[in-house]
Amino acid sequence: MSDWDTDYLPASLKDLIDVVGLEPARKLVSVYGGTRLTVPAKMHAAHPLAELLGIEAAQALSRHYALERVDVPTASAATKAARNREMREHHQAGVSVRRLALRYQLTERRVWEILAEDAPSSQQTDLFSES
C-alpha cells in the first residue's frame, strides 16, 4: 500500500517534504508524528535525527528549521485515504468484503461504508442528460 494520498497531506507536511524529501519525511512522521521537535542549529552525524533521516536530509532540516519547534503531523487523513483507495481497488478486482475486513483490521460494516463513500448512487440522475 502506498502510505499517503498526497491530496490529503497537510500544508506543513508538504513544506517538510520540500525541505527533506519524501522518504525522510515519511520516516520523520512514522517516528515523531504527533509530537513537537526542536531542530538543532547544527546537525551532527550522531544526532538521532541524522541517524533516522540521513545526514543530508537532517542538515537540510536544520538549515530550514534551526532552533524552531516543529509540530510533526501524523498524516492520518492521507494514510486513510490511500488505504481506502486501495481497498476499493481490491474490491473491484474481486476481493471479498470479509477478506478486506481481515486484511485492514476493520469490521465488515466499516468496509462497506468505505466502499460506499465514493460510489455514485444508482438512483442519482444526470442533470444534463437528455432522457
Radius of gyration: 20 Å
Strand order of the largest sheet: 1-2
Give average pLDDT, whole number: 88
State which percent range the strand residues make up: under 5%
Main beta sheet = 2 strands, antiparallel
Q: Low-confidence stretches at least 5 residues in length (pLDDT < 50)?
A: none
DSSP helix fraction:
55-70%
Taken together, the total number of domains comes to: 2
Order of helices and strands: HHEHHEHHH
Find the structural class using helix and strand composition: mainly alpha
Shape: elongated
Distance between the termini: 41 Å
Number of strands: 2
Number of helices: 7
The quaternary structure here is single chain
Give a verbal description of the structure.
The protein has helices at 11-20, 22-32, 48-53, 55-65, 76-92, 97-104, 108-117; strands at residues 36-38, 69-71. By secondary structure, the chain is mainly α. The protein has 2 domains: 9-74, no CATH class; 77-117. The chain has a two-stranded antiparallel ribbon with strand order 1-2. It is elongated, with a radius of gyration of 20 Å. It starts with 10 loop residues before the first helix and ends in a 14-residue tail after the last helix. The model has no long low-confidence stretch (mean pLDDT 88).
What is the topology?
Layout: H1 11-20, H2 22-32, E1 36-38, H3 48-53, H4 55-65, E2 69-71, H5 76-92, H6 97-104, H7 108-117
Antiparallel strand pairs: 1-2
Helix pairs in contact: 1-2, 6-7
Task: Provide a compact summary of the structure.
With 131 residues, the protein is mainly α. The protein is built from seven helices and two strands; from the N terminus they run ααβααβααα.
